[in-house]
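To whoever is on call:

I kicked off a structure prediction for a single chain this morning and the downstream step that reads the tokens threw a length-mismatch warning. I double-checked the sequence; it's 331 residues and nothing unusual in it as far as I can see. Pasting both halves so you can look.
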Amino acid sequence: MEELWKFIKVWSFAFIALSYCYFVPSRIPKGIFRLLSIIPILYLFIILPWNLDTNLLRGPTTLYLVWLGNFNLLLFSFGKGPLSPKDRPVSFLNFLALACLPIKIKQTSKNNNNSSLESSERPPLRLAIKVLVLGILTIGCAHKESIHPKLLLFCYCGYLYIGLEFTLLAVGVTTAKLLNLETEPVFDEPYFSASLQDFWGRRWNLMVTNSLRVIVYEPVRKWGQLPAVTATFVVSGIMHEIMFFYLIGVKPTWEVTLFFIFHGFCIGLEIKVKKLVNGRWTLPLMVSRPLTIGFVILSSFWLFFPPLIKGGFDEKISREIVACFNYVSGV
């Protein structure tokens, strides 16, 4: 219960800070002076997650404030991003939500019905299957001593995806319903990815993808597509290192950064090959999809998960989940 009160205090400070951004810096012309007025809030967002002791609460809070919040406020300083739409003013409540929560207002277009991002809500059967799989994975992770280490890594992959999707989906859908917003989904079934470009650019954690696209990819794009892709993945790697530091509190090993640089390099190769082939030959989906997901999973075994496991994150999060279930069942 004490941790819950800390969580409420952290987010109360965050929303007070965002209220200041809405009423004060928004009146300052975009540019360096607006940025200077927001710098104290950027610092506040960096230190706020450290007030939380559990990774179940500190992890999402770090993502929302340190990554999404600070990125969106930096864009807001220069009149860009979701807080500075050119076609409509942003209301106070929408400003609070769009600043640091995993929601993106759906853009209406003539081809909207054909979009792969159909809705922020998923078919009930698909959600039910994911709930069942998450339950099985939870039980498996709780008895990891009797599971082969390689199989355990597969469990971690599934747990990361479904757990992250449910966390972001719950916050996003709840906020969208309260504010009567039509939003885009945060994930678009990444296991259907036919290429690394498809996986990282159109299906996996789209809130982070959108923020990186606006703040890194588009400004660097004027020097070419490959430099823009490389810069985007370097920044993504550094931000994940920061996330890991908040979660496990140990000195970065830079394996996670290398993971994203490696994927950026592979996407660069993918772009080159596609240009050379020029649509004359493509792999069937039944081949490209398993190859893509297999590559992502195996490379994550190599570089992404080892820092978390060495830092004891898996054991700590398992204890926190058990304690959470015990507390809820006791209530």
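Update from on-call: the warning came from a stale cache, not from the record. Cleared it. Sanity check on the structure: The two ends are 11 Å apart (CA to CA).
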